[in-house]
Fold this sequence. Notes:
Elements: H1 12-22, H2 29-61, H3 66-114, H4 118-122, H5 126-168, H6 170-217, H7 219-224, H8 228-280, H9 286-328, E1 350-357, E2 368-375, E3 380-384, H10 391-398, E4 406-411, E5 414-415, H11 421-426, E6 428-431, H12 442-447, H13 455-464, H14 468-473, H15 491-505, E7 509-513, H16 521-534, E8 539-543, H17 547-552, E9 555-560, E10 563-568, H18 570-575, H19 580-590
Parallel strand pairs: 3-8, 3-9, 6-7, 7-8
Antiparallel strand pairs: 1-2, 1-4, 4-5, 9-10
Bound molecules: adenosine-5'-triphosphate (ATP) and magnesium ion.
Amino acid sequence: MSTDSPKRKITLSGLKKLFELYSFMRPYRVQYMVGMVFLLFSSGASLVFPKLLGDLVNVGSSGLMAEEINRVILIILAVLAVQAITSYFRIVTFVNVTEKTLADLRRSVYNHLVKLPMKFFQSRRVGELNSRLSSDITLLQDAMTTTLAEFIRQLIIIFGGVAFLVIISWKLTLFMLSVVPVVMILVVVFGRYIRKLSKKAQNEVAESNTIVEETLQGIQSVKVFTNEFFEMRRYKSITQEIANTGIKNGRMRGAFSSFIVIGLFGALAAVIWQGARLMGIGEMGVDEFVSFIIYTAFIAGTIGGMASVFGRVQKYIGATESVMEIFHEKDEHIEEDRELLPGEVLKGSIRFEDLSFSYPSRPETEVLSNINLQIKSDKLIAIVGPSGAGKTTLVSMLMRLYNPTSGKLIFDNMECQSMSLTALRKQMALVPQDIFLFGGTIRENIAYGKPKATDEEIIEAAKKANAWEFISTMSEGLDTIVGERGTQLSGGQRQRVAIARALLKDPKILILDEATSSLDSEAERLVQDALDKLMKGRTSIVIAHRLATIRKADEIIVLDKGRIVERGTHERLMLLDNGVYRGLSELQFAV
Ligand SMILES: Nc1ncnc2c1ncn2[C@@H]1O[C@H](COP(=O)(O)OP(=O)(O)OP(=O)(O)O)[C@@H](O)[C@H]1O
Ligand SMILES: [Mg+2]
């Protein structure tokens, strides 16, 4: 994986994408134009310089009055002032536009990103997406201001400079133009080769970042398995590779810059030689010659700088592509918070019709096969089955985290595809198997079920979830910080916070994916007790590992290898000889 954007060939479609990006600048275009005007002035000012220096030489060598010299000096000072002032305003204006544009762009990318379906996140790493929002967009910042301005300035200097040259001496200009482009082509070819090398270095750096990220994210596992030295070695070898590649790159870059010096100065020397010849036969004055040489140096330098601009444009296209790729992913239709329409209110019955599903990342393995299931409203359904049977997957279907590969999912009498996703999810709550808490306070975490909840509502939910007992004993109460991902709470506490969160949402359909981790009997009783209260007046679907929950269920669904193999009440299922359920529960009793 690479967290850095790849360089792309400069193609028409690549440039088009870059321009697509510039559309984010539209609201600020007037300001942008003002910046351009400043840019024109500051580049124009730098163009008159060589001419003025030539004039100065002319004035000096022809022995004119001091007054004349002062006049030229004053003009030079005025030009300097214009350049200084316009440069300042150009930078300030461009930065202003860019910062606003980037904020818009960041927001749009993020807004789009959070609306993308689970399918999208399955195939990508968080670090990679994060880097699109941070480094790629930061790179584009450079593209929008510095580089574009630089590029335009370079064009002005090259074309304006050549125009001045032609005016001074078209013969010498022709000669110059036959030498400099040759050098330039060599520079570009050499530069390409170097870019290939540095790409390798970039990939290695990205790889090393992945190691750091993974190690730190899983630092507990690293410690528990005493794999610190294993990780150190892993990191050491990659850092060594980075260093080696970097050193090799350095040698090449050194050679490249020597080459540029020789090439450019060689070209300059050739032009001086021709100029001196023309001066010798009287076709050119000393002042013109001085201006000519300075212009030529100017142009040559600019052409050299242009190669780096092209390199950067390639990078921008890479960055734009990866940012635009997010935009081109189809998002889920998520609506702003709104009241439910009367037709959208769920009664709580659910029907699976011949539903099959494979995860997009592993299309060849069917995780759910031909599920047919009718769940009446306000009932408690338990789903049991061996690990990997597809229980969690089944409830992900209900939440519409994924779309079924085939078959239908029907709520009340409406097919789920025809319902508003937001309305549907709003009426369901899921307490997942691996509970995720956000790094803030307990209050924030419970209120995640209903962001506008009052403290009273939060406390009530916490009480019903049997979470209030432990929250109220903490010195900070609801303001207790739960630590990153909730690691400062125990498993049972986290579970009760998650239950309180679900309760606050007051869902019509409650889905509970019980964690397999065994709570002690007191904690289990508390959680169980909370659940009993939580289930009243709703359709509840519980993936159960504890017999207490299962016994109370109106129906038990036994899932094995993605198929429903048995269903019925506890008593009925226990009567089945060699039944999967009987096997499972005998195992549990035996412990
Ligand atoms: N995101 C995913 N992408 C691809 N395959 C997955 C994904 N999540 C689960 N699976 C696969 O789907 C199958 C069912 O997984 P699921 O999580 O639904 O099992 P489960 O019944 O909940 O098991 P457990 O009791 O251990 O929680 C497993 O074989 C698993 O490897
Ligand atoms: Mg599961």
